[in-house]
DNA sequence: TATGCCGGGTT
DNA sequence: AACCCGGCATA
């Protein structure tokens, strides 16, 4: 538990750090631009964040007041950091005006004084002796009281995440000096950052309690942040979801390449989804190693429309169903059959993700080919029809395997049908043909077929009822094994008329057999 | 070798 | 289209 949480924090913390990072560049403007967008959103939210935000703004409005009460006055001579000229400069407190809440700071480098809001001044002393002080800070704000948060922040200068919520202040305060920050501070700030971000992303998972394990030196953290940003995308999105389906809540595997943009951050967070969302993802932030957690081999499932000459690929099952329904079956919601048929017209595809730097796409991301992903099934060849319950259990299940796994009897049945009702179609000859058949069967032919279905193995032609066509169609698992480049049909395993009936009962043979043609009765 | 079936011929 | 068969491929 603790570890998980801590990991989460770790992740969040990084995010926070990341966001705050821009200040490191010495550009306060950047921060300003980044953050504002966040705030409106925050305010819209109903989550605790919103309240926090409210508090926070208020807080900002009344900063001076708060400061007097909540923040200790800066002592003359105290070493602080302030922003000047877009850079953070070390300075000494000359005077702290509690009334105006301004601090006059002597810039060490420049050699002159400047006035800054107390809120824009970052204490340096803590950094000098980081651990002890910070620990103390930690004690107070355990409860996450938002109002009290500022205190924590104030005392932990290096806390990056604060940035998220506290716009201007954070700018100065967050600039990380390569020194370590306290765990406590990290906790709080990270918490906040995480909350903000997660809330933004609408992630359901935000209520995890603060936790810290991150003993990452701030500097390192900063570095890792960027470094990890890439990974995070990876890990963060963890897996299976990624770009595949936005709607379905599948997470997005984001590109490994790092994007420092805030957008990225939001993206990253939006993707990690629901259930495992943070748990798995947080890992990347565990400082131990940036690299280890690239999920390169995660398998994603996509759904491809099998409608002839369509081949549309969607990430969500819902999407594909809708597509089939609307595009091919027609919207006429008239029949249940249609509904069920939707299932029939798409196939699941296992896609191996290899840390593709693929941009997160929209719901429908047809350009699979372009992605480094390894697609088990070629788009061009409609192949496996997978049952609804088709198991993703066997991710790398090659189509061939599928096809082989298909019960021959089934094929037989199918073929029989074809022979009986759709003589013109050679069943399992090629994937294409197969496809067309299935489609034909599924749509118009089915009704026709079922009644026609005729013989089974038995001599007397006792025809037992086969499952309804539709079910049958669902049973179709894969395309025929056939890929015969060439010419001749591989001899099937099934017994043929000759074997079954014997040569002496040649009259019982199917006509094809009699004609020395491919048996139509016992298809492979 | 038996079997399955293609290609092609005949009706 | 139905029927037939030579001949090849495969088990």
Please provide a written account of the structure:
With 524 residues, this protein is α+β, with helices and mostly antiparallel strands. The chain has a five-stranded antiparallel sheet with strand order 4-3-2-1-5. Strands 7-6-8-9 form a four-stranded antiparallel sheet. The chain has three domains: 2-67 and 126-291, no CATH class; 299-393, no CATH class; 404-514, no CATH class. Mean pLDDT is 46; it is low at 1-71, 125-188, 198-297 and 353-486. The chain is rod-shaped and about 115 Å long. It is 44% helix and 9% strand. It binds a DNA duplex (11 and 11 nucleotides) through helix 21.
The pLDDT mean sits at 46
Encode the helix/strand succession as letters.
HHHHEEEEEHHHHHHHHHEEHHEEHHHHHH
What level of helicity do the residues show? 40-55%
Shape: rod-shaped
- Overall radius of gyration: 33 Å
Q: Structurally, how many domains make up the residues?
A: 3
Through-space gap between termini: 54 Å
Unreliable residue stretches: 1-71, 125-188, 198-297, 353-486
Q: What does the main sheet amount to?
A: 5 strands, antiparallel
How do the strands of the widest beta sheet line up side by side? Answer: 4-3-2-1-5
The tally of strands reads 9
Number of helices: 21
Structural class estimated from helices and strands = alpha+beta
Which strand-content bin applies to the residues?
5-15%
